[in-house]
Amino acid sequence: MRADARRNLGRIVEAAAEVMAERGVEAPMEAIARRAGVGVGTLYRRFPDRHALLAAVGDHYVHAMAAALDRAAGEVPDAWSAIGRFVSWAAEPGRAALAAALAELPVEAYTGRASFARARAGWLERLDALVRRAQAEGSMRQDVGADDLVHLLNVFTCHPDRLPAPVAADPGRYLRLMLDGMRAGAG
Amino acid sequence: MRADARRNLGRIVEAAAEVMAERGVEAPMEAIARRAGVGVGTLYRRFPDRHALLAAVGDHYVHAMAAALDRAAGEVPDAWSAIGRFVSWAAEPGRAALAAALAELPVEAYTGRASFARARAGWLERLDALVRRAQAEGSMRQDVGADDLVHLLNVFTCHPDRLPAPVAADPGRYLRLMLDGMRAGAG
DNA sequence: CCTAAGCGGAATCTCGGCTTCCGCTTGGCG
DNA sequence: CGCCAAGCGGAAGCCGAGATTCCGCTTAGG
Fold first, then answer.
1. Assigned CATH topology for domain A56-180
2. Does the pTM exceed 0.85?
3. Cβ contact, residue pair A180, B180, below 8 Å
């Protein structure tokens, strides 16, 4: 594979991640190509259909999330703070948006992508462990779980067009409210 | 106006409210017509364009919300419980969804509709009063407002396709979490 | 310098939804 | 009861957005 081709490949995946975060998994191929600074033809040559592209984007995303989680857990001793940090990181514009976008998509996009499934499962598992640790430390309610965290992140960080403008303008405010509600004793 | 025509008019507005709640303000006219048990022709004769239909739906909605709020406030003595009740009512499937749908829409849909604007303002004012009462009673945080409540309702009750499936399945759970976060002392 | 890998983007195709239009139906008056 | 205009439904044609193909031009790199 020629050097420039390889470079474009990377750009395309990044662009796809961005655009899908902003406009959903169904974002027009042309928009993705434009963002990547590439012609649609190139996009199609590399990824024969949308699913192929999605799988690539999914890999990209899962690894980024996993790395951020580990970083957050390493930076502070208590689990509750680590969760707070991770949430802040994930809430940065257009970040978890991708999670929401990917959540929308049909399973068949990943069939035969065992590595992706494994990475995803691993990430969720580590998040879950962190949550359980926070609960054991007495800082988090027992009746909420890692899933709730993920869902709410997805909700508040999905692309701005899909949220009431004030929420889109400051999702952090609402995520903090959510965390306040998840703190031990809040129920 | 003939009796059957009047009947259809009512059905159309109701159907439009339902369908727009589920599929957004841009929901296909044909879907609305079908739900109303009416031909598209009838729809277009009555409402020459989408804006006319939206205005009618908006009226419908604002009045329903105002009535529910007053009912909730009348049923229990303390403001916090009243808010809880109202939120529960508004979170019933496809209810506030309409609010979210209407929130999306451009101002020009309502220009020249003073009565609608007035009704809307009145409703918000009453909700705000209730929130301030809850704060005075010491049951609600000072740093949140009626707006936050409205936004959160919109977020969690928008049509299911736009939410992670588990959230769509039980928006009440997440709204309760958010309310827990808004309770006095939660910050 | 040459050549095949790689590229871009115009052209074409498809699909979903909007809007119109006209022949049929029916409320309700005389 | 009979008439006829108000009202109805939905097929037909229009349109724009996006997917996908294709081919002549560009350029990496041996």
1. Tetracycline Repressor; domain 2 (1.10.357)
2. no
3. yes
